[in-house]
């Protein structure tokens, strides 16, 4: 009986790994990212109506000791990971960007989200991003090698972990 259980667990593990590896080959999910589309856990209507701007988030992070949980933020998507749709960037008021990852790597977004306005619900914090991590994301974004090579110092930035994302216009 123990042997059957062990064989079953091994087979299940192998098939799960194979499926996981196979799904990574296909890239971001398909979709047009239309108004009202949601990703992940979605965004509560109460959170959507109380969403703050990126500028207000930045000020709140400075005031609240670098981390804010259960916050809704509205902004414009400037980039999406071309490989899997596993991260995106949001434009800030000073024309820079802040970085968004999906909570627990549990969902992905289509590249059609670029240029769309969204509401994100989740946790935000100020974080120091290493040179290697910055270069990794620049490579994912298919930036020119000269731009990747120009990354030489860690940077402090807003990082957001989204529980849900909703396209608003």
TrEMBL record:
Keyword Signal tagged: yes
Signal sequence region: 1-20
UniProt keywords, alphabetically: Signal
Keyword Signal among UniProt keywords: yes
Pfam families registered for this protein in UniProt: DUF4920
Superkingdom of this protein's organism: Bacteria
Protein known as: DUF4920 domain-containing protein
UniProt organism field: Chryseobacterium taeanense
Lineage: Bacteria, Pseudomonadati, Bacteroidota, Flavobacteriia, Flavobacteriales
